Amino acid sequence: MQTFFQDLRFGFRMLRRSPGFSILAILCLTLGIGTNAAVLSWIEGILIRPYPLVPHQARMFALVGTTRGVPGHNGLSFPDFVDLQKNSTLFESFIVDRITGTTLSVGDRAERASVGIVSPNYFDALGVKPILGRGFRPEEGTGRNGHPVTVIAYRTWKGRYNSDPNIIGRTQFMNGVQHMIIGVAPERFHGTFVGYSFSFWVPTSMQETFDTTGYKLEDRGARWIEGYAILKPGVSRQQAQAQLNSISQRLEKDFPDSNRGHENQLVPLWKTPFNGAGNMTSTLAITMAVVFLVLLIACANVSNLLLARSLLRRHEMAMRLALGAGRRRLVRQLVTEGLLLSLIAAVGGIAAAYWCRNALVLAFPPPLPGTVIDFPGQIDWRVLAASAGICMASTLLFALVPAIRASDVDLSNALKAEAGGVLGGSSRSRLRSALVLVQVSLSFILLAGTGLLLQSLIKMRSASPGFNTNVVSSVVDLFSAGYKLDRAKIFHTQLLDRVRTLPGVESAALTRVIPFSYNVFSSAPIEVDGYQPPPNEQPTVEYVEVTEDYFTTLGIPIISGREFMRTDDENVPPLAIINETMAAKYWPGKNPVGQRLKAKDRWLQIVGIARNSNYRSKTETPVPFFYVPLRQNFRVQNTLLIRTPETPGAMMNALAREVHALDPNLAPLITERLQDQIDEISYSQRLAVTLVALFGAMALFLAAIGLYAVMSYTVSQGIHEFGLRMALGAGTKDLLKLVMSRGVRLTATGIMIGAAAGMMLTRLMGSLLYKVSPRDPLAFGLAFLVITIASLAACFLPAWRATRIDPVRALRNE
Amino acid sequence: MIKLRNLERRYPLAKEKFFYVLRDINIDIQEGEFISIMGPSGAGKSTLLHILGMHDHGWRGEYFFRETAVHHLKTKERATLRNEQIGFVFQQYHLLDDLTVYENLDIPLSYRRYSKSERAALVADTLDRFQIVGKKDLYPRQLSGGQQQLVGVARAIIAEPKLLLADEPTGNLHSGQGEEIMELFRKLNDEGMTIIQVTHSEKNASYGKRTIQLRDGWITKREQ
Description:
The structure holds 2 protein chains of 2 kinds.
Chain A: H1 2-17, H2 19-48, E1 60-67, E2 70-74, H3 78-87, E3 91-106, E4 109-118, H4 122-126, E5 132-133, E6 149-152, H5 154-159, E7 171-174, E8 177-184, E9 195-197, E10 200-203, H6 207-210, E11 226-231, H7 237-254, H8 256-259, E12 262-268, H9 276-312, H10 314-322, H11 327-355, E13 372-374, H12 381-406, H13 411-415, H14 425-462, E14 472-475, H15 485-500, E15 507-511, E16 522-528, E17 540-546, H16 550-554, E18 558-561, E19 575-579, H17 580-586, E20 596-599, E21 602-610, E22 625-629, E23 639-643, H18 648-662, E24 671-673, H19 674-681, H20 683-717, H21 719-727, H22 732-761, H23 777-803, H24 807-813
Parallel strand pairs in A: 4-10, 6-8, 17-22, 19-21
Antiparallel strand pairs in A: 1-2, 1-11, 1-12, 3-4, 3-7, 3-11, 5-8, 6-10, 7-8, 9-13, 14-23, 14-24, 15-23, 16-17, 16-20, 18-21, 19-22, 20-21
Helix pairs in contact in A: 1-11, 2-9, 2-11, 2-12, 3-7, 9-12, 9-14, 9-20, 11-12, 14-20, 14-22, 14-23, 15-18, 20-23, 21-24, 22-23
Chain B: E1 2-14, E2 17-29, E3 34-38, H1 45-52, E4 59-65, E5 68-69, H2 75-85, E6 86-89, H3 101-110, H4 116-129, H5 145-157, E7 163-167, H6 175-190, E8 194-198, H7 202-205, E9 210-215, E10 218-223
């Protein structure tokens, strides 16, 4: 220990003695360790332990509903949730939540805010104690609209209510209903929807007040909530899943109409499909791999710097050996010095990671009014321990080999006054070249990966989702304004008529849910004339309610039959238009037009087949989907779609005038193009590109420094040779060629290795790529170009310096 | 104390051809002797000194050090023997630039099995003995050449070696400083330390009790 401190003290002194070396090495390592710490903190804060104040998160799982034979997932119904709670013995608790928006009445103004509709045991089960007031009581979870109480977020309390200590008991109008504030959540609790912060929580009994699609607490078929399960201590996931399966089977037997084929799966929090965690998993995994490569490049760089410095310290090493130090002792001293560099870099890196913990939010588009995007990194002891591990491992990685090389001194030669000889010079040079090869090849892989993601993003942006993305969408919040169904129907019909006559409007329609939105489509178990599903399977298909002109407005071709008409209302038999995939699956080889399908106890007659389009993402595989006339299934809350060459801003003004004319108390809420919505939803791809491009640039910078250092060193070692060559008649061009050719050889070899490794590694990015081959020649070609230019630039300066040598001085010095 | 028999040091030139730096060296050195090795540049003086100091291992022949057959020892065993028995003084002092005088004296002890308190006591004694207490916190670059070599000698003997090897110890000093160092060597020899020095200077050689002349790797003369 005593020698360790002695080495540490000496290490400090050495750092101070060569500030240039120290700063460069610490900077490289800070980049390497800091980026790893930042990504680890994001993984910890977003995927592993997304709820900082919730203890025992290791026992917490997402509860995901699935239907046998149907890809994808769905939610949980409230009656199923109640039965799960009642019949399980291996679970400590189940909780449910549903994120939604609300309109707050603040004086004569209205504001939007995010609300979580949660089970009454929400705060107790999570172990989150409000800092003021209380959480919900069991009785507040039931009774239709019977308990207008709310717990508010700390941020809401601070911002909206100026941290009023007497807030408990005060009221707030939400969706036109006066709610009593009963508690304030602690500062670091943002709710259970990873990616968004809640502003208010209300109990499930208030569902109807906040959900435009009607009362659902007694509807077992309405799978509208997202569930979480907390296992009892000592219970394994397998045991809990087995019990869940048996309860699900019993529910299926007892309620075949709603639960046939329905299963519930326990899914680790980091795989939660219904919040931001699922979207971020592959992005963060790729980012982690990228920053690990950045760390390797940084280590190779510092290794190179240490190897260069070991030549300057050969006298010191020789003396220490002559004075009795063993090689092991010297290696220990040099590794301790390396550890010192890593420790300083780790402190800097963790500070940078802490500073960047909320940086992910910057990559997202501006949130809708009233929503707060929240992807926090979390630096806890686990992240610190992992960073310490990275620090130790990188020390061994960058310091050990140079230390072993530096301590390999031939004493007899080194100590003779006239000799500068240290054996192993050529092997050291080979090692330095090998390190540059590693850097160039890793940078090539990162750049090729960035190129692939960038192309993928460009292709994804330019690819058609199957509908016109220039269509403008807008919402008028009739639900919060207290409109009932009949009044809403009249309002929307009149508004649609008015909008269709506005200048610049080519067509307009209403829909309950727009594609690529966070809102869920309706779904229903279906029966099809003449189609026999496999046993135990219940075909369930999603659908959406739309008005006439929907397909015209969105530009979705009807390939057979017809579009809905204005007359397709409650006075005609129920109708449906299906998509191509549904037609192929349930009516193979037949024309479904004129056929029937049963959904929600009604037989619907198929009047048309629409071309497939995307509903949630451009990468989804085509799924069966159908449309029903909105006028046969009217809802209070709908979205207006307008096909127009006008900008959303211009449309907003015209629309506001029309809405105001119908009801002076109303205004359109949001007006944006569908493309904006698509961009918002595909943030994970954009984030991946941003992060990989950022870290790829970092890697390129580090590799260029490495190459520059090696070429500078080569030039400084070859001064005598250059002087001699110049004395013998070599010109500037000859010397430039001599030095550059060595750099070009190194670069070319590095690129070849990088290309070969890249071909294999980029295949792992498959899930993030869209219509781009992992071996895309353009991405690899661009990486080649960028690396070559950076390498030539890194080699040119030392080469130019070689041509500036004074031959007389160079020869005399030798 | 030292017995060399048929010792030679050679470097390969081409296939089956060698360049000989030392040839057929046979020397006997008793404890308490003060030997000077002389000869022109390239005669093999420093090479012989480094072989005696067990820094060079590429020689052939027999080398006995206080009855120990060095030629049978492994590299690590030779290093242990060197650490216990031999001190080295260099022409260019070879102090560690980044350590103070105190730390330069402490460093050979820290590589041996001395406790912290023993090391502190030995360094304090040595500083006192060489009258450099006032310079203990200075760095080598803050000392004159003579002072640096004084520290070099102090460092060489601090671990109480039986044999002190010196390679042109006054080569970089002016005559006054050189004399001081040579007087110091004489004093150490009088106290019983065996000393072997390589020198070009007849005057310095005269401090020794015996001189060995080398030329082209051969011993050409032994003088009492």
